[in-house]
Amino acid sequence: MSNQKPIYVTQPQLPALQDFTQLLGQIWDSKVLTNGGPFHQQLEGALCDYLGVKHLALFTNATIALVTALQALRVTGEVITTPYSFVATAHSLLWNGIKPVFVDIDPDTLNLDPAKIEAAITPQTTAIMPVHCYGNPCNVAEIQRIADIYGLKVIYDAAHAFAVNIDSGSILNHGDLSVLSFHATKVFNTFEGGAIICPDAKMKQRIDHLKNFGFVDETTVVAPGINGKMNEMQAAFGLLQLRDIDAAIDARQAIDARYRTALNGVPGVQCVSNTAASRTNYSYFPILIDSKYPETRDNLYFRLRQHDIYARRYFYPLITDFPMYRGLASASPSNLPVAKKIAEQVICLPIYPNLTEADQSRIIAVIRGG
Ligand SMILES: Cc1ncc(COP(=O)(O)O)c(C=O)c1O
């Protein structure tokens, strides 16, 4: 083991503590801790402006937001989704009693391959749940074309896609609903948190009811809603985070560029590129290790750990390898050859605004020294 300080795959960007305690002071004065208080309302408005979206409902985390998004659209039966994601994507389906149907990914975008969706549609299919993996935009036009032909809803797991734009504007304006995560590991965080983005006020109202137990007013409950509300402390923190977000993304961009230059031409190391976005957030830095590299992906992963560098194999294992999914016919490895291969090759390297050049050089040296 080395005795250098550990480098983790990410580290949250935090506002100045005194700025946060000042906002906490306001919460202490008002005694409004949750239930759609002033900070919650302010953050919803500020995020709509920043992201370029019409309506946004804040949540306690993205997993509850995904579960609620499916409820809001009354999705049932079967939903087509990707095996190459964090387990919460598929778990949100099981929490609604919905059967996930896994479809393989595209080798370039690492997102659900639109060309393989139609073959997976059955009379029970009601929706598609793609993921903008690493913030790389899905082929939204093609997915919408298929959804329109078959009358399917589209819910994007946009947990990684904060502030990602394509030529037409925010990627979050596509599909019926999109869900963001504000978990501590994300580009924009509120300790824990998330949001549903929706195109119209009526749907936003339904989502607001669902995240508050189904309450419409003091005495009326219209649905078996959940408690998904973001609290005032998280929302106040989010307002401070938003102030610094552009600088945080710029710092990530510089780190991303340095990795690409330093790893260019290293045999067996391919940096995943994000070509479809007109603006991206540099939330992850995935590389793919192939047979031209002198050792296996796992050897490199463990060698990095010996140097106290904690890169992560996102996403390995595939969701379809976990016991609650692996018995499904669509989870069979023969149905998912691209996802299987990528899951064996991927490593996400550390990237966060405060990653120093010296620390980044340490990471690059270990990889080049392979
Ligand atoms: C693709 C994806 N979906 C959903 C989630 C769940 O988000 P949360 O932790 O906010 O519940 C995450 C990560 O945490 C994720 O990476």
UniProtKB/TrEMBL annotation:
Keyword tags: Aminotransferase, Pyridoxal phosphate, Transferase
An annotated Gene Ontology molecular function: transaminase activity
InterPro entries per record: DegT/StrS_aminotransferase, PyrdxlP-dep_Trfase, PyrdxlP-dep_Trfase_major
Highest taxon of source: Bacteria
EC number: 2.6.1.-
Cytoplasm found in the keyword field: no
Designated name of the protein: DegT/DnrJ/EryC1/StrS family aminotransferase
